[in-house]
Amino acid sequence: MKSHAQLARDFLADENRADWHNETIYTFRQKRDTTVASIPEWELMRQAASDIKDHVLANLDQYLEQFEANATANGVQVHWAADALEHNRIVHQILQENRISRVVKSKSMLTEECKLNEYLEARDIEVVDTDLGERIIQLKKEMPSHLIAPAVHLKREEVSKLFHQHLHTEKGNADPTYLTRAARAHLREKFLEAEAGITGVNFGVAESGGVVIVTNEGNADLGVNLAKVQIHCMGIEKIIPRLEDLGIFLRLITPGAAGQRTAIYNAHYHKPRTGTSMHIILVDNGRTEQLGRADFRNSLKCIRCAACLNTCPVYRRSGGHSYHATIPGPIGAILMPGKDLEAYGDLPFASTLCGACSDVCPVKIDIHQQLYRWRQIILEKQHRLSPKKLLLKSSLPFFRRASSLETAGKFMRQLLRLIPRQSFLHQKSIWGLHRDLPDAPKQSFAAWYQQNKAHDKQR
Amino acid sequence: MHVGLFIPCYVNHLYPQTAIAALELLENQGIQVSYPADQTCCGQVHANAGMEKDALSVYAHFVKVFENFDCIVSPSGSCTAQVQHQYAALPQTPAVQKVRERTMDLSTFLQNIIKTPRIEALFPHKVALHTGCHGLRSLGLDPRPLLANVEGLELISLQFPDECCGFGGTYAITKPELSAKMGRDKLADCLDKGAEYICSTDQSCLMHLEGLIKRQKLPLKVIHLAELLTAKP
């Protein structure tokens, strides 16, 4: 599998497209900045949300049991899934028991993580993603490239082509309104045919046993309300204690994505309608393990708002797919290594550690510090001596002795002077490919100081 | 007050003029400044690459060199942030705590300790300010009030003022394409806004940006904050 570095290079090869992607996503960030600047209590809300999440994570077992008890009392069937496979099996079993072969699903990063679509499709069940962006990438057979705007990497001309192929829209018509209406008509049929509606969950309220789902398209609600079976797939970290706590989260979750003050639909589901059934599947899939890692625990506070993606200068210029992971961007780079260090060990290095992500995180996850801490673990586990590691290791003694470092510096300056500007070092090395090397000054500051200042000081 | 001048390793070897400017600026404030000759490096490159454990011996050396100064001042937000924050990985002896508390960026020292610094500089140019990420976000640096003391200087506002330049230490080497792209975008922003110079609190950003400028022969120059604050006609 290609690393983030290689995939980013591929993405950048089409620089115009990379610029377009960068500018599109930066617009989201600017909208976020404007909205946040207009909310005087923003920092207070961040702190409160962070504290609530910390409290929940410290008492997760109790809140989950409370949630289960209240949901069950409401007539909801609550299921527990230890991992992705168990989650998928439970969904499939519910569908089988109800003889259901057609399903609509609203946007859910958890079902992406569990690869639910593949699992159900292999068992002859039609799953239709009803979020517009999700539907686009489902037709294109791609992964989401963004947490909130899964098809943000595609231009409307590409969507036009795709819709022409699958939905028989006019060839070459890339008018967004036209395309959206076509998707709407297509999805309306799917909604009416579907016998079950699957959703993700943004918040599960322990004191009520209800789930809250945030969308802009209302697709989750249409799916749930038209079907005889509703299934809500929820990561165990999505719990909040009280309904009273919800307000700040609903206000914090939307600005990060594109500056919205609130989502169009904040839907609450508490119990099944008459003649229908409601299921909530509580999924662990590695979350307990992450909870046990003191240094990375608070990554579970994430509410998937995408603010860190939008602000990240690397994400904007490398695209979501370069992270080769369900969760892309800075938050993905700290969550994914916890799932599989071997497969995602490159992601914590996909950052300049500029810290922009931590600055915008609405629940105060110290993302860039966690990137740093993952790097320590990854290098520690790396038995093979990579050139980078070897170079850094062998340079250490110089950094403990000023005299050695002075000698090395002198040698380096000589090298810079002697090697011709047209040589490999200057033109083709990893630095020289894009940048000129610095000119070598005639002496170091230490040497200059010794000559010009040290005597004054001694006097 | 006795100030220890902490010069980042690469500045010592490649950009002595920046260090000389920082020294001059500090001496102009009428305080005692020394450059301890046995200093080496803050250890950031190793630590950020994932070798913090190996870097601890470098940290310990730094603490030993600087523990007896009243203030440790560096013309680098990045190296300062490293000492202030990442030295938490050392056992927190009184010496370590003292060094972490007393290490500060040159601009912070002038703004918060000296408060009304003596700055006599003339620089009749359009300048874009790029505060390095660690200085900007970890230390909250804002050297703009200092630039107001520079005669003739016209400060240019950038479209993307807090965007990383793409240097990122070993990142510049391990992800050269992305690093260079980020740098080129930063330079394009400066040129769009009509800047003649890009000034930074960190020479490392400037090393990367100057390399890109020279390769592309752009009509732009780099200057460190310390040099700008001591610029003479």
Q: What keyword list fits this structure?
A:
heterodimer; A: 459 residues; alpha/beta; Fumarate Reductase Iron-sulfur Protein, Chain B, domain 2; Rossmann fold; 3 domains; six-stranded parallel beta sheet; four-stranded mixed beta sheet; 25 helices; 10 strands; globular; B: 233 residues; 2 domains; four-stranded parallel beta sheet; 13 helices
Short description:
The complex is a heterodimer of chains A (459) and B (233). Chain A is built from 25 helices and 10 strands.
Task: Write a structural description.
The complex is a heterodimer of chains A (459) and B (233). Chain A contains 25 helices and ten strands. With 459 residues, chain A is α/β, with parallel strands linked by helices. Chain A has three domains: 1-38 and 292-383, Fumarate Reductase Iron-sulfur Protein, Chain B, domain 2, CATH 1.10.1060; 60-285, NagB/RpiA/CoA transferase-like (Rossmann fold, 3-Layer(aba) Sandwich), CATH 3.40.50.10420; 402-458, no CATH class. In chain A, the strands form two sheets. Chain A has a six-stranded parallel sheet, with helices on both faces. Chain A has a four-stranded mixed sheet with strand order 8-5-6-9. Chain A is globular. The termini of chain A are far apart. The relative contact order of chain A is 0.12. The mean pLDDT of chain A is 95. The relative contact order of chain B is 0.15. Chain B is built from 13 helices and ten strands. By secondary structure, chain B is of the alpha/beta class. Chain B folds into two domains: 2-113, no CATH class; 117-228, 3-Layer(aba) Sandwich (Rossmann fold). At the A-B interface, helix 1, helix 2, helix 16, helix 19 and helix 20 of A face helix 1, helix 2, helix 3, helix 4 and helix 8 of B.
Distance between the termini of chain B: 31 Å
Determine the most extensive contact between two protein chains: A-B, 63 and 68 residues
Mean pLDDT metric of chain A = 95
Give the count of structural domains of chain A.
3
Mean pLDDT across the residues of chain B is 97
Strand order of the largest sheet of chain B: 2-1-3-4
Structural class by SSE content of chain B: alpha/beta
CATH superfamily of the largest domain in chain A: NagB/RpiA/CoA transferase-like
The main β sheet of chain B shows up as:
4 strands, parallel
Shape of chain A: globular
* Count of individual helical segments of chain A: 25
What's the CATH topology label of the largest domain in chain A? Rossmann fold
Instruction: Quickly give the CATH architecture of the largest domain in chain A.
Output: 3-Layer(aba) Sandwich
Q: Provide the domain count of chain B.
A: 2
Share of residues in helices of chain A: 40-55%
Count up the helices of chain B: 13
Query: Which strand-content bin applies to the residues of chain A?
Result: 5-15%
